[in-house]
Design brief:
The protein is mostly helical and 173 residues long. The protein has one domain. It contains 4 helices and no strands.
Length: 173
């Protein structure tokens, strides 16, 4: 920890959260638009089948995990915490969207769809954060292995045999 605020950087945290949110939204809306242009989805304003909402749910899951990973990757500290903040933000925003569109006429889609978006926000965020933490753990482990190899090489010298210091016991003991 360093600096006046104990190593925390509110601006970097906010930037990480904003970037992860933008990644998830841009990927989701971009895919929506591409699928409309490719006529996989009907034109905007026309209702979609449940199967197409399942497709939308599938790629939103992937994009939510990616967005949460981006947050964790950019976070100045505590990657999982940052990912989960994005997840709770997703719960709130999806919940507001569900409430605002629940009785919309004409219907904007099946009622299960916004409920699933709310329900999946936290698990997707956790997975994105976990993937980043796992990556950080792997990198730390690799650095320790490299450090150990360097230290071992320094101890063995050029002969390949371990050098003994004057205060160490012979290998026989």
């Amino acid at each position: 920890m360093n600096g006046k605020n104990g190593g925390r950087s509110p601006m970097k945290s906010a930037g990480a959260l904003f970037a992860g949110l933008v990644v998830g939204v841009v990927l989701s809306l971009g895919t929506d638009e591409a699928l409309h242009l490719l006529s996989v989805y009907p034109p905007w304003g026309q209702s979609m089948s449940d199967g197409l909402f399942i497709l939308a749910t599938a790629y939103r899951i992937v994009y939510s995990v990616i967005g949460s990973y981006v947050v964790a990757w950019l976070a100045p500290n505590r990657p999982m915490w940052h990912s989960m903040v994005l997840g709770y933000t997703g719960v709130v925003v999806s919940g507001i969207g569900a409430a605002a569109t629940w009785n919309h006429q004409p219907s904007l889609g099946p009622h299960w769809y916004p409920i699933v978006l709310v329900a999946l926000a936290l698990p997707c965020s956790w997975l994105g954060g976990w993937l980043r933490e796992r990556q950080l753990h792997t990198l730390a482990t690799q650095q320790l292995v490299v450090q150990h190899k360097r230290e071992t090489a320094a101890l063995t010298g050029s002969s390949g045999r371990r050098l003994q210091s004057s205060n160490s016991l012979p290998d026989a003991y």
